[in-house]
Amino acid sequence: MKMQAISRRDALAYMTAMLSTPALGQDAYPVRSVRIIVPFAAGGGADAVARALAQKLSERLGQQFIVDNRPGGAGNIGTEAAARAAPDGYTLLLTGPSHVTNAHLFRQLPFDPMRGFTPISLLTSAPYVMVANPALPVSNFRELLALARSAIPPLSYGSAGNGTAGHLAMEMIKAAAGIDMVHVPYRGSPPLLTDLMAGRVAVAFDNVLSSGPAIAAGQLRGLAVSGMMRAASLPGVPTIAESGLPGFDVTVWQGAMFPSGVDTGIVKRLAQEIATAMQAPDLRARMTTLGVDSIGSDAETFTRFLEQEHQRWGEVIRRSGAKVD
């Protein structure tokens, strides 16, 4: 067969079509199931957010989004698994504050928390609540600060473990208010709350969802919430910022990331789908029951947020001397 001559214009058109093929593929994404690695145990807050989002994305995109819990190592085991996954858009990581704090708490990590991932979307945000044993003679945050300044021996505070957000947030308060308190780390939130209600430690930061029922039942006293806005589920509990430490703002958040190297078109597509899903009335209602605010940001906003969190918690950790290895 005689080959027809290809004009320069036809050649350019062909090359343009070939170069645009990946973009056309993005419109079809996903074409198979997508794995969401959650580096924490099933049943926790991050897991609940992941499963609610997975269900909504499965409905919207026509492919299964499957939650894969990989707990352990303060979140590092699951995070490493996500970092080593193929950057094809079919494995993503749902993570939270430990992603940035672990970068400063561990001397060596088998992945780069900041460069090893491509941010997709900030999913949720919620304040912590400072809770006290009801027998402690304080009814608000200001009274706690006054008691802490005069207490001999120093008051104790509990946390879910060394380097957790509750630990570091209290260290921020100690530095800002010029008080001394003794840290008592636990292996997770349940044993912490048990000892707090028994009076073995005086105060602690905890998430609103798990402490809310205990506050309502009078088993714990809510002193303040850590965000800039009062929690919708605890409207009578003021913020720390309005209780003596202006500008104080610490939240627990969840975000979605890909391993680095995923096509930018796929990142943008999934970010858009997540934003739409997170604002759906049924998913927003589900997030409210979990005690979190539904966000669903674009990738650029989440990237800036991560950089700010990385810098801020790095300073707190260096100042506190907190270590986990």
Structure description:
This protein has 325 residues and is of the alpha/beta class. It has helices at residues 8-28, 45-61, 76-83, 98-105, 141-150, 165-177, 189-198, 208-216, 264-278, 281-289, 299-320; strands at residues 34-38, 65-69, 91-95, 117-132, 156-159, 182-185, 203-207, 221-225, 251-259, 293-294. It has 2 domains: 32-126 and 251-320, 3-Layer(aba) Sandwich (D-Maltodextrin-Binding Protein, domain 2), CATH 3.40.190.150; 127-243, Periplasmic binding protein-like II (D-Maltodextrin-Binding Protein, domain 2).
Taking the alpha carbons of the first and last residues, their distance comes to 71 Å
CATH topology of the largest domain: D-Maltodextrin-Binding Protein, domain 2
* CATH level-four homologous superfamily name of the largest domain: Bordetella uptake gene, domain 1
Helix content: 40-55%
List the helices and strands and how they pair.
Blueprint: H1 8-28, E1 34-38, H2 45-61, E2 65-69, H3 76-83, E3 91-95, H4 98-105, E4 117-132, H5 141-150, E5 156-159, H6 165-177, E6 182-185, H7 189-198, E7 203-207, H8 208-216, E8 221-225, E9 251-259, H9 264-278, H10 281-289, E10 293-294, H11 299-320
Parallel strand pairs: 1-2, 1-3, 5-6, 5-7
Antiparallel strand pairs: 3-9, 4-7, 4-8, 4-9, 4-10
Helix pairs in contact: 2-9, 4-11
